């Protein structure tokens, strides 16, 4: 029962204090990008855990937050994207005028989510004319080739190490 303006104000205060970060929706239309909902990420996963009222293990969201923070360090523009069927790709990375990377994050690929995660990423690769994409998981590792596209499924720890060697 909190007014929407109050939520916006507090969200803005937390963003200005660098406690929260907003991830905008990617669109070639500035108007659409500005009017769509934004995803929020916490600057510190420990802080997030301390203030979140969760009755389940949120490992997937924690992994996604960690990936966001690491991608943010690179200084490129970050977005999320949904296709016309509502399938969401967690991260679209843009450098200059080019989309350079599409990333999905999930705790694990399993029979329940595998089709959704793969389809969302394949659709992003197709849309942005990318040849490879990445799915970051807690511990799975695999390579999938399909439709002239390659998806690297990699554990978070390994992906983080690779990011350190790229610096």
What features would you describe in this structure?
It is a single chain. The protein has 167 residues and is of the alpha/beta class. It contains 6 helices and 8 strands. The protein has a 6-stranded mixed beta sheet. A two-stranded antiparallel sheet has the order 1-2. A hairpin with a 5-residue loop joins β3 (77-82) and β4. The radius of gyration is 16 Å and the shape is globular. The relative contact order is 0.11. The model has no long low-confidence stretch (mean pLDDT 91).
- Low-confidence runs of at least 5 consecutive residues: none
Principal-axis shape equals globular
**C-alpha Rg, in Å?**
16 Å
Instruction: List the quaternary state of the chains.
Output: single chain
Structural class: alpha/beta
Q: Would you tell me the overall average pLDDT?
A: 91
Q: Percent range for helical residues?
A: 25-40%
Widest beta sheet: strand line-up: 3-4-5-6-8-7
| Distance linking N and C termini | 46 Å
Task: Give the percentage of residues in beta strands.
Answer: 25-35%
Work out the number of β strands. 8
- Summarize the helix and strand pattern as letters: HEHEHHEEEHEEEH
Main sheet record: 6 strands, mixed
**Count of alpha and pi helical runs:** 6
